[in-house]
Amino acid sequence: MCCFWDPFSEVKFSGGNYSLRKILNAVWSFPLSRMFTFLVILFLVIIIFEPILVSTLGKAGVSIALVVFLWTEVWHLAISFALVVLFAKKVEHGKLSDFGFSPQNFALEFSGGAVFGALMVAGAVAVMYLMGIYKPISHSNGSELPLAAGTLLFAAATEELIFRSYAFNILEKHWGTIAAVIVSSAAFGFAHMLNDAGGASVDSKVLFCTFLSLEAGVSLAACYVFTRRLWMPIGAHWMWNFFEGPVFGTHVSGADFGQSYVSATMEGPVLLTGGKFGPEGSVFCLLIGTISGVILLYLSAKRNNLVSYAEAQKRLAERALSEKIAA
User: Fold this and answer.
1) Confidence of residue 196 (pLDDT cuts 50, 70, 90)
2) Are 185 and 217 in contact (CB under 8 A)?
3) Are 297 and 162 in contact (CB under 8 A)?
4) How far apart are CA 177 and CA 239, in angstroms?
5) Is-contact 116 235, C-beta < 8 A?
6) Mean pLDDT of the chain
7) Cα–Cα distance for residue pair 105/54, rounded to 1 Å
8) What is the phi/psi pair of residue 19, to 5°?
9) Predicted model pTM
10) How many Å apart are CA 20 and CA 25, to the nearest integer?
11) What pLDDT sits at residue 90?
12) Of 210, 222, 92, 77, whose CA–CA distance to 152 is shortest?
């Protein structure tokens, strides 16, 4: 399609009614192809250069695990932002505002998202506490909370750039809002298959990633659709992780983030405790997160923020026509 950068413009081979350039362009015009290319480039840059970053930090005397984690998350955010800007401008020929970057209502939407994320996790943990599943033991002075909060803020911003700013937007432009929510949420959830989660089995990871796709993927995508900016999903993602781990003392997608404010134990079946994945691996977060996301999508529809498949295809055709006329 003419509305995207053509990386195969120099390919000359052709035969009959087909040409290699047309075939490759058809593949490249498919949104999943560009999303996959984006993720592969990001992954390769991270795995190639991150050991250099960690080694440099070690030589500089940085040995505290959470501090190293903070710097790696800063690195992830910088690379993700640069790649989103590159793809948005050079591949999609769009403006950054089309990908959720707008200073409008920053404070309101970020703080609203933070409250939304905190309440979802707090609600799940409260139910666990009332059922005798979540059992607080003690609490600390919270000295590591600021460092953990900073680390998780950068991590949340990175994942929102990848899955909401870029992936969701290019999918929605082709297939409409609901399909984009489903596919981008699944990609977000199953990206966590890479987490070690204490050596959890593949079957456990698949179940957890399915839960995460629904509870967090849908609710965070709904935050983006509701505001059409990144601030609410970043705030929600940040506080979801912060309260789940550093505050309530449970695992966050199978990871730990230093000394938590509350030390607690979890007792009961894995589907109720979340096991090695923390509350987000439980049916409580599954229900609360998914229902919250669906309600927010309903409210987004009331704002006329949803794009149908037919409307998405119409906009693509109009853009292609205007670029053809301009050429």
Assistant:
1) confident
2) yes
3) no
4) 25
5) yes
6) 90
7) 36
8) -140, 145
9) 0.91
10) 8
11) 93
12) 77
Report the b/e string of 2-34 with b at 16+ CB within 10 A. Answer: ebbeeeeeeeeeeeeeeeebeeebeebbebeeb
User: What is the spatial distance between Cα 46 and Cα 283, in angstroms, rounded to a whole number?
Assistant: 33
Higher per-residue confidence, 4 vs 163: 163
The span from the CA of 5 to the CA of 127, in Å, is: 50
Pairwise pLDDT comparison (158 vs 23), residue with the higher score: 158
Judged by DSSP in three states, 252 sits in strand
Six-digit token string for 246: 């550093």
Beta partners for 255? Answer: 252
- Examine the pLDDT at 3 and tell me if it is beyond 60: no
pLDDT tens, position by position, 108-134:
999 999 999 999 999 999 999 999 999
Q: How many Å apart are CA 237 and CA 1, to the nearest integer?
A: 35
Identify the residue whose tokens are 């309903």. Answer: 298
Asked if residue 40 lies in contact with residue 191, where contact means CB atoms within 8 angstroms, the answer is no
Nearest in space to 13 (alpha carbons), one of 25, 5, 4, 22: 22
For the record, the structure tokens of 49 come out as 């250069």
The rounded distance, in Å, linking the Cα atoms of 273 and 236 is: 22
For residue 129, what are its two tokens?
């506490």
Query: Tokens representing 166?
Result: 């870029």
Name the amino acid, one letter, at 194. Answer: L
Q: Which residue has the tokens 């200073």?
A: 103
pLDDT at 1 over 50: no
pLDDT tens readout for residues 267-286: 999 999 998 888 999 999 99
Please count the CA atoms within 13 angstroms of the CA of 179 that sit on its side-chain side: 16
- Distance between CA atoms of 316 and 303, rounded to whole angstroms? 22
Candidates 6, 26, 316, 2; CA nearest to 171 is: 316
